[in-house]
Amino acid sequence: MKNNTSKIMLILNISIFVLLLTIIFLQTAKINALTERLEAITIFDWIEGTISLKNALNHSTPLTAVTPEFIDHSFLHHSPFLDGYDLKELKEKYLKYRNTDLYGSGRRTGNFRRIHEGIDLYVPEDTPVYPLFPIGLVTAVSHDPDHVIYTTGLVGNTRVDSVAVEYGKIVRILYPEGIESLYAHLNEVYVEIGELVTGDTVVGLTGYTGNIRNSGKPSHLHLELHDCSSESFDPETRMHYQFASLRHFIDNYLDNYETSSE
Ligand SMILES: [Zn+2]
Q1: Is the pLDDT of residue 141 over 90?
Q2: pLDDT digits 0-9 by tens, 240-251
Q3: CA-CA distance, 251 to 63, in Å (whole number)?
Q4: CATH number of the domain to which 81 belongs
Q5: What spacing in Å lies between the alpha carbon of 115 and ligand 1's midpoint?
Q6: How far is the CA of 110 from the centre of ligand 1 (A)?
Q7: For residues 114-123, b (16+ Cβ closer than 10 Å) or e, as one string?
Q8: Is-above-0.85 flag for pTM?
Q9: pLDDT exceeds cutoff 90 at 224
Q10: Which tops the pLDDT comparison, 205 or 63?
Q11: What is the span of the domain harbouring residue 221?
C-alpha cells in the first residue's frame, strides 16, 4: 500500500514537472514572438522640442507607431535659416531683385525659355541651411559645383523636357507632408542620400555654385519646392499643392532606410 502511494506520488510529481516545463516553453516562445514584434515598432515622438525615433525601422515586417504629438509637430514648417520666418515671410525678408527672384519669373538657357522654379534668398555666403520641417529624408545630393538638373523649357512654342540647368551643389529633402525642398548653389553639402534629418540638422552652407556664377547675381540660396508628383510650385502657395500623407512618406521611403535610434 505504502509502495503504491509512493509510486502514485512519483508519477504525479513527474507529470507536474513535465506540465510546468511545457508551460515555460510555450510562454518563452510567446515572449520571444512578442519581443520581436515590439522591436519592429518605430515610434515617432515629439519630446522637448525635437523629433525622436525609437527602435530601428530596418525590419522585414515593420510596424510604425506615430504619436499624435509627432503628427502635430512634423507638419510645422520653418525657415531654412532657423530665423523664425515662415515661407511667406522669407520672401519679404530675403528677396533682392523682385522681378527675377520670384517663382515663375522668366529665364533663358541657351535657346530655351523656361521659368524660375524656385525663389532666390539672399543671405551671406556660407550661411548654414536646415530642413524646412522637423523631420525629413534626404533624397538627392550633389557635391559637384557644375551639377546639372534637366528641366522643362520652350523653343518657340515647342516644349522640351531636357533643358540642362546648372544648379551646382544641391540637397533635396522629402518631408512627411509629401513635399520636397531643393536647395541649390550651395558651397558645402553635409548630408548623404537616405539620411534622416531633423529640423536642427545643418544640411549644407549657402554659396556660389552652378549658373549663379554667370548670372551677375551675388551668392544666394535657390529654394525650390516640389509636390508629390515632382512638379515645382510657388513656396508662397504652399497650401495648395497636391499633398500626400504621413503614411505615404513612411510606406514609400522610410522603410527602405536604416535609421539610428535616438
Ligand atoms: Zn534661383
Answers
A1: yes
A2: 333 445 555 565
A3: 10
A4: 2.70.70.10
A5: 10
A6: 17
A7: bbbbbbbbbb
A8: no
A9: yes
A10: 205
A11: 77-256
